Amino acid sequence: MIKELPRSYENNLAFEITGKVTKEEEEAWIARLDVITDTYEKFNVMIVLGENASWGFEAGLADIKWIAKHMDKFNKIAIVSESDIWKWLIKVDSFFAKFIGIKELYFNMSNLDAAWDWVIKE
């Protein structure tokens, strides 16, 4: 399930992802993000990933296609999780993200507020 968190405002978004994301949930999320990319030049996002967060094949493919098309709209991405796998993946991904102007950091769940503060800080 993808849930937008109440701390979202303007081009600063926060989402929590738990369980397996379906194609329909992914499509609804993409529709929400399309509104943001049509309204703002850049946006920031914090994604809180639960332990069991995963994507089905169709949802994952839709996600990858949308990200590839809108990479230039991302400014900051904070991934919040307890998973060592996500920590490692973000470390690798952030190296490449910086080459296209995206700032990306991993935060533990205990640092959720620090992640949000980083996302909204200019």
Proportion of residues in helical segments? 40-55%
Outline type: globular
User: What's the gyration radius in Å?
Assistant: 13 Å
Which architecture per CATH?
2-Layer Sandwich
- In total, how many beta strands? 7
- Amount of beta strand: 25-35%
Looking at CATH, which topology would you report?
A: Transcription Regulator spoIIAA
Q: Report the oligomer.
A: single chain
Please identify the structural class as seen in this structure: alpha/beta
Unreliable stretches: none
SSE order: EEEHEEHEHEH
CATH class: Alpha Beta
- What's the total helix number? 4
Distance between the termini: 30 Å
Strand order of the largest sheet: 1-2-4-6-7
Count of the separate structural domains: 1
Sheet with the most strands, sense and barrel status: 5 strands, mixed
Rounded mean pLDDT is 91
Q: What topology does this entry show?
A:
Blueprint: E1 2-4, E2 12-17, E3 20-21, H1 23-39, E4 43-49, E5 54-55, H2 57-70, E6 74-80, H3 84-97, E7 103-107, H4 112-120
Parallel strand pairs: 2-4, 3-5, 4-6, 6-7
Antiparallel strand pairs: 1-2
Helix pairs in contact: 1-2
Question: What does this protein structure show overall?
Answer:
The chain is α/β, with parallel strands linked by helices. The protein has one domain (about 1-120): Transcription Regulator spoIIAA. The chain has helices at about 25-40, 55-70, 85-95, 110-120; strands spanning about 1-5, 10-15, 20, 45-50, 55, 75-80, 105. Strands 1-2-4-6-7 form a five-stranded mixed β-sheet, sandwiched between helices. Strands 3-5 form a two-stranded parallel sheet. Helix 1 (about 25-40) runs parallel beside helix 2. The protein is globular and about 30 Å long. The model has no long low-confidence stretch (mean pLDDT about 90).
